[in-house]
Specification:
This protein is mainly beta. The chain is built from one helix and ten strands, in the order αββββββββββ. It has a six-stranded antiparallel β-sheet. A four-stranded antiparallel β-sheet has the order 3-9-5-6.
Amino acid sequence: MFRTGLLVLLAGVSVACLGLGAEILRGDLSSETQLDFDIGATEATSALLAFDPAQHTMDIVISIEPLDQAGDMNIVIVTDAGTRFQVLGSFAACTEEDNLRRCERQLPMLPSEQVGAWRIEAQRTDSTIATSVDVQVNWVPISS
């Protein structure tokens, strides 16, 4: 219990210090970031708060708006240690809702990674329209 309380406190302090979007509700941990592509831009980067990846798996939801963003997009999570995880490379398994594309992905528990500010990097080939990408990570605790 002490470790969990300390983790929540550290995560809250990290959010306040880093200005990253994160929520701690009923013990649920989630973090969220948004990447914006202006017309002509092919790359975007943002920060994401990582909650104890050594004790949680990650359910990731990527929402891309507008729906008419043509061509696939490459999205990578980069940890503090520099490890890169591709979480999107193709729209093939994504669903379409209203005016957005929704892509769900998962990452396993990462025993060697720590709480901290990770980076989200996105690249696209079609830069003819402005596009917004929302990345939400729900941190699911591993029962021991």
